[in-house]
């Protein structure tokens, strides 16, 4: 089974080698037929500490790194500098 890849915006980079990424998903409400936006925060591993707040990044599912970290930084301004 392929790993999921999500795109989001970095909202926090205060932790060492960890970023918090806000991912937004849009869907049509089944009854009201309006477009609804839902957001969720994911903790991702950033080995190079390169991602900064406001960067648009791609994250991929990975093995559990800690209690909350199950995602790994794949691509973005931070990953390109490596």
Automatic annotation (TrEMBL):
Any GO CC annotation of this UniProt entry: ribosome
UniProt key word NADP: no
InterPro entries, per database record: NA-bd_OB-fold, Ribosomal_uS17, Ribosomal_uS17_bact/chlr
Lineage top rank: taxon: Bacteria
Gene3D superfamilies noted in UniProt: Nucleic acid-binding proteins
Pfam families: Ribosomal_S17 (PF00366)
Cross-referenced SUPFAM superfamilies: Nucleic acid-binding proteins
Keyword field: Ribonucleoprotein, Ribosomal protein, RNA-binding, rRNA-binding
Keyword RNA-binding: yes
Record text on subunit structure and interactions: Part of the 30S ribosomal subunit.
PANTHER family named in the record: 40S RIBOSOMAL PROTEIN S11 FAMILY MEMBER, SMALL RIBOSOMAL SUBUNIT PROTEIN US17M
Role noted for this protein: One of the primary rRNA binding proteins, it binds specifically to the 5'-end of 16S ribosomal RNA.
HAMAP family recorded: Ribosomal_uS17_B
Family, similarity comment: Belongs to the universal ribosomal protein uS17 family.
Protein's UniProt name: Small ribosomal subunit protein uS17
Organism: Labrys wisconsinensis
Name of the gene: rpsQ
